[in-house]
Amino acid sequence: LLKHNDVKDLKCDQCDYATNNKYYFKNHTLTHQTSKKCKCTLCDYTTNFNSRLKRHLLTHKNFKCAQCNYETNNKSHLKTHLLQHKDSKYVKCIHCCYSTNKKPSLEKHMLNHSDLKCVQCDYTTKNKYSFKKHELIH
């Protein structure tokens, strides 16, 4: 017995694709167009679908691990990588979001932070929180 849904009314004249859904059929016909509307500005990739271009652009984006020098262009790969750090003990910079599991690395990083100096008096500190608290007294 042939079901009603088994008959595909919309058939592509350029390939074997067939469907009953007008939206799917319209999107399919775009795949045969020679002039692609959406082009990646970073490489030669072209497509007729903006959603596909957006997905493609993620391949050019770098996702960096804040705890080590791992880098990837795939967000899910970074999430998997971050699980490796979950149980490791790491130390955080008190001035910014930098963190590491190596104390010597943190000590070297701390050299990047110069003293914060109050412009209204001689007060100096490396701690942003203390500095902001101090500014309130003026």
Question: Which features does this protein show?
Answer:
single chain, 138 residues, alpha+beta, 2 domains, two-stranded antiparallel sheet, 10 strands
Describe the structure.
This protein has two domains: 4-58, Classic Zinc Finger (Double Stranded RNA Binding Domain, 2-Layer Sandwich), CATH 3.30.160; 91-135, no CATH class. Helix content is 32%, strand content 14%. The protein is built from five helices and ten strands, in the order ββαββαββαββαββα. The protein has helices at residues 22-30, 50-57, 75-85, 103-110, 128-135; strands at residues 10-11, 18-19, 38-39, 46-47, 63-64, 71-72, 91-92, 99-100, 116-117, 124-125. A two-stranded antiparallel ribbon has the order 1-2. It has a two-stranded antiparallel ribbon with strand order 3-4. It has a two-stranded antiparallel ribbon with strand order 5-6. A hairpin with a 6-residue loop joins strand 7 (91-92) and strand 8. The longest helix has 11 residues, at 75-85.
